[in-house]
Amino acid sequence: MPEYKLKINGEVKTVNTDADTPLLWVLRDELGLTGTKFGCGKGLCGSCTVLINDEAERSCSVEVSKLQDKEILTIEGLARDREHPIFKSWIEFEASQCGYCQPGQIMTVLSLFNKHGKPSDADIETALTGVLCRCGTYPRIKKAVDQLFENRG
Amino acid sequence: MKRRDFIKIVSLSGGGLILAGFVPSVFAGNDSNGNNFQGDDPDKKGVFAPGVFVRIDSTGLVTIIVAKSEMGQGVYTALPMIVAEELDVDWEKIVIQQAPAGKEFGSQTTGGSTSVRFSFDNLRKAGATARMMLISAAALVWKTEGSNLYTENGFVIDRISGKKLSYGELVDTASGLPVPSDVKLKDPKDYKLIGKKTHRKDTPPKIYGTALFGIDVKLPGMLYAAVKRNPLAGLGFNSYDFADAMKVNGVVDFAEISGKIAVIAKSTWQAFKAAEKIAVDWQKGPANEMSTQKLREFCISKLDEPMEVIKSEGKSRSEIDKNLKMIQADFELPYLAHAPIEPMNCTAEFKDGKMEIWAPTQNPQGVRKSVAQLLKLSEDDVRVNVTFMGGGFGRRLASDFALEAAEISYKIKKPVKVTWTREDDMRHGIYRPFSFHRLRGAVNNDGGIEFFGHHVISSSIWGQQSGNNPSPKDAGIAEGTTEIPYKTAGFHIEGTTVRNHVPLAYWRSVFHSQNPFAVESFIDELAHSAGADPLEFRIKNLHNNPRLLHVIKRAAELSDWGSKRPDGTGVGIAVFEGYDSYCAEVAEVTAAGARIKVNKFWGVIDCGLVVNPDTVEAQMEGAIIFALTAALKGKITFSNGTVDQSNYDDYPVLSYDECPAIQIEIVSSSEKVGGVGEVGIAACAPALCNAVFAASGKRMRVLPLNG
Ligand code: FES
Ligand code: FES
Predict the structure, then answer these.
(1) Which of A78, A103, A132 corresponds to the end of one domain?
(2) Average pLDDT over residues B607-631
(3) How many domains would you assign to chain A?
(4) What's the complex ipTM?
(5) Number of A:B CB contacts under 8 A?
(6) Are residues B357 and B449 in the same domain?
């Protein structure tokens, strides 16, 4: 099996795996980074969202062989800073229920947070549409995100 | 594995919260902030454990055990709140552990909106018992009367001298005392915790990515399995060819399990890939002929046939004055999947004659029992650990996924995790039954309901699961039809059951996700036929029911019911009483041609005394969104007896941009604790469809609307 060097959460990790393995399964099964979740495997739910070079990407739909020299950030990497304003906002509004979709929601919001000063409502809506939550936490995610960007703006 | 092999993972978040999961030691390194420590051993000396829900060690660490499954509804926080309230401990300092399956916990089945409702008294007693014993212990130490002592934040305090002893210091003495059978509970007016918005203990680990869901379990030497199942539910295989699958990198083995074929590999991805390469000749059967279309034709033909009477009161249909207009309407709802975002999965390890299971299950005792039965083990040799789960909604009441893991591990004698693909989850699910409804009714000249008739056709969930063939009356299909909150001069409920091969499931609120849709939509039709406002019609015809009346009025006020809205925009109301709770919802929609935009929902719930109001609000929001998915989009259909849908593209769920604004109000009440999780479902679809009628003049009687 080919060997890949991946830059994940600021560290270089070496994995031996099939070239077609989606990043999702490398993270979960090989590297024990199980905060990134499997929901659909087809790019339809967003639970597996990570940042690749600061863009929100669905890790179930990116093959490991396409990631040389890219910077990957997972929820574990972000959570090294427990004081990150996203987490604070999420806790304040209790945006999580079962919690399974939340790493994907948070990483999606992070891509906006890292980019814009203050995204428009349309930007937020476009980013979050399609990151599915079966528990129905959207109203609270909205509140958490609104406050997040209000505090900044 | 003995209990002492378990390690509590405790993470001190920024807010100083302490969190813990009851997780095996292999996960000790999983929490990135490094605050792990060895958990206490309940069998060892120096731990005070009066009953199964509370443990206090000599350092004063209080551990509260949660025996219901946390699937998003907040029991991991609400249940310990009840214990902590009576125990008088510092909420910020308690540790929570998830109980494994065990008879000592009473029923652990998590469903029916029962967790807080049915555990409330017991958990209060558990907390109060421990507290009383700690007081008695302090009285012994100080040689004084218990009545001179009180408790606060983990201390027993002498009212007169002001002396203090921490609970930890009293552990040894308290452990030697008899457990009192009768304890005094707090007066609810003294509650400090119950009724206050309390942050969830499971939120930090879930958002940091450290919480352990079933799918995250990893054991040393564990292999990964994927399973091929006959698309025709209930049947097995004739033969299969594994040659191509064996060529996939990482595949190590395969196993036949109860009519299914499992492929075992070194990673989930390899197992998924290999499963697709197994060529199987599946058994076929008469169910091959079944389709949604045929089922539909059959049910429609049955709507007019004589059927079993379930309840009949007052005037019969033939006795109704011929001058009154009898209206009739048919309603139709499809099969639905639960589609929680975490697909079914389970991990099992069979070693030295014992089975240990890690399952995201709503029914740990059921898993334990069914695994023991299948593998002919004693229940004592089956341990079931409960993980967090990515949604339940009733799907995880079944044990199918756990049986697969157990059977594979039993055969290959290695630890194994079975993960379902989303496609497996959608096609091999267990489904909320379809239903057909014929409603008939007439309004008299005083605007009262002269006749209300309802014929429901559906399938019995418990009948199928237990192998019984109950009569329509006992089938459960009439749940929510026989008790309606309105006065009627004639009331007539009939039922027909249909049996087929489609595996059925309890789905959030069960038949309350169906019958109240027909009932509350039809009430609207009756109001319309009487020329009355739907809100006033309901209030006028309501039985004496002050709590329901109150939520109706509040929902009307919040939504500004009578106000003039733009053309094409309308509001609809529906009400529900069940699970010892009362609920009214108002929807506002804008209808433009075939497009329906849901602008806003207002929901008012009276669920009696509330433990954690923030969770109640969240459950109401979640229920409305869950029910909106069903009303707007959800549909499982069958061709050749097999499910047509496969993933979130053809079984879509409501997404962020489609979510209406939602405003919830919780009635302040000291009544008996009511249910919450399912209560918000029933009124959603009828409120929505009644709003569509108000906006467009079109009656929507078939769900989903965008189907
Ligand atoms: S698992 Fe990647 S989008 Fe659903
Ligand atoms: S919180 Fe459960 S799926 Fe989003």
Answers:
(1) A78
(2) 98
(3) 2
(4) 0.98
(5) 204
(6) no
Chain B nearest-CA residue for A34 = B216
B250 at A interface, C-beta within 8 A: yes
Is A7 in the same domain as A74? yes
A46 and A113 in one domain?
Answer: no
Q: Is A58 on the interface with B (CB under 8 A)?
A: no
Residue A15: give its domain's CATH number: 3.10.20.30
Residue B33 alpha carbon to ligand 2 centre in Å: 24
On whether the pTM is more than 0.80, the answer is: yes
Reference B343, options B651, B692, B11; nearest CA is B651
Q: Give per-residue pLDDT as tens, B426-438.
A: 999 999 999 999 9
- Answer yes or no: do B46 and B98 share one domain: yes
B207 to A91: CB separation less than 8 angstroms, yes or no: yes
Give the structural domain span for A100.
81-152
Q: Tell me if chain A has a CB within 8 Å of the CB of B677.
A: no
Helix (H), strand (E), coil (C) string for B451-500: EEEEEEEECCHHHHHHCCCCCHHHCCCCCCCCCCCECECEEEEEEEECCC
Tokens of B434: 């379809």
Q: Which residue range(s) make up the domain with B230?
A: 214-284+344-419
Per the CB < 8 A criterion, the answer to whether B179 and B133 are in contact is yes
User: Which residue in this structure is represented by tokens 């989303």?
Assistant: B422
For the stretch B394-407, what's the b/e string if a residue is b when 16 or more beta carbons lie within 10 angstroms of its beta carbon? bbbbbbbbbbbbbb
pLDDT of residue B352: 96
Dihedral angle of Cα B73, B77, B79, B82, to the nearest 10 degrees? -130
Same domain, B400 and B435: no
User: DSSP characters for A73-140?
Assistant: E-HHHHTT-TT-HHHHHHHHTT--SS-TTHHHHHHHHHHHHTT-SS--HHHHHHHHTT---TT--HHH
Side chain identity at residue A116, one-letter code:
H
- Residue of B71, B202, B341, B422 with the most ligand 2 atoms within 8 Å of its CB, for mutation: B341
Which B residues, 64 through 83, put their C-beta within 8 Å of a C-beta on chain A?
70-74
